[in-house]
């Protein structure tokens, strides 16, 4: 992903992706439903589908609850052609569980459809995500959008005056110049020798935290391939103040 857009910021949310697929499982049947839920690593012999959806609903509610200046909004939307009518049962379950909006869109007019979708996402993310979709296929019949908006204040704010251009190494052959902010202080720090990479944890006001991970030169792809909750937990367990 980084190679495809070396000069752009990249943001992805595993939680948002998982929620979107779980929601789709509500409208799926038989083998397709099983494949979606098992693809999310659920053992359907040990947990009922109802528990899965209630769990995601509770997670969304917990994450969206404002706390001490930290704001996180999540939601889902399906844009459909007027010819495609979703089952009433799916809508009755998905709307309250997953905060789903269902909107009609004329994909045969791609320019107008793009504007409708982009305007919706821009409004829901308070202007942070613009022009999400481009060059839509007029043969499209459905588009699923899952969005996340986050806003928080650092416990130790950065000074915009302390910003300078520095090199960012995408891989062994690709280097880009990006503006980087810096500050001096004591932080939670860990050097992962296995990858290798440097990890720093920064705190927001409240209980939210962020892990900033700097892979060694040429190790971005290796980091992407091994990034999982177990890895993050390992980092958290080994952090030291430095």
UniProtKB/TrEMBL annotation:
Residues 1-242 form the Serpin domain. The keyword Glycoprotein applies. GO terms for molecular function: serine-type endopeptidase inhibitor activity. SUPFAM superfamilies: Serpins. It comes from the Eukaryota. One of its GO terms (cellular component) is extracellular space. The keyword Membrane does not apply. Pfam families: Serpin (PF00079). InterPro entries: Serpin_dom, Serpin_fam, Serpin_sf, Serpin_sf_1, Serpin_sf_2. Keywords: Glycoprotein, Protease inhibitor, Serine protease inhibitor, Signal. Belongs to the serpin family. This is Serpin domain-containing protein.
